[in-house]
């Protein structure tokens, strides 16, 4: 392949984060905690690709197939409620979270628009017990939501590399991971 192109790209990002947390003790060993956080990210991307015109000896042929002018907006809202129990030998935390991710992409030069909303309920639990100063058991379960990235959702052919042509899939759904961790520690001190 003999490709002679001029690429000019510009990306402008703006991000706002808001968070609030409230903690309420129920007893000397128990508490409730509520947390709300919101993140707004706006991104404006432009890319102008010009192919080389041999007759004029300059980059004057605009390549519309791989040039773009897009606006991407992502909003993530998280509501999380936790119950916490702590004593001298035991600790238990469980959190239930509602995670909503809204994604919007607009391609101005191609007149394409994509809007997706991902909504998940996520659980986190941690149990920790100390049998003695040297012996401890730690159990953790958590769920994690992984949403597709903007370029994976866009129904656009990216042929900037002719050997690796990529097409996004707007029907992609998020991945939901279930993670479980067990930790046990025991040691003997030398005197």
Describe this protein with a few key phrases.
single chain; 191 residues; mainly beta; eight-stranded antiparallel sheet; two-stranded antiparallel ribbon; 1 helix; 10 strands; 70% strand; elongated
Can you put this structure into words, describing what you see?
With 191 residues, this protein is an all-beta fold. Helices cover 2% and strands 70% of the residues. The chain contains 1 helix and 10 strands, in the order βββββββαβββ. The chain is elongated. It starts with a strand and ends in a 5-residue tail after the last strand.
Q: What is the molecular shape?
A: elongated
The major pleated sheet works out as: 8 strands, antiparallel
Q: What is the number of helices?
A: 1
Rounded average pLDDT = 90
The share of residues in extended strands comes to: over 45%
Count the strands? 10
Stretches where pLDDT is under 50 for at least 5 consecutive residues are none
**Structural classification:** mainly beta
Question: What's a quick, concise take on this entry?
Answer:
The chain has 191 residues and is an all-beta fold.
Topology:
Layout: E1 5-25, E2 30-53, E3 58-62, E4 68-86, E5 90-107, E6 112-130, E7 135-146, H1 150-153, E8 157-158, E9 166-167, E10 175-186
Antiparallel strand pairs: 1-2, 2-3, 2-4, 4-5, 5-6, 6-7, 7-10, 8-9
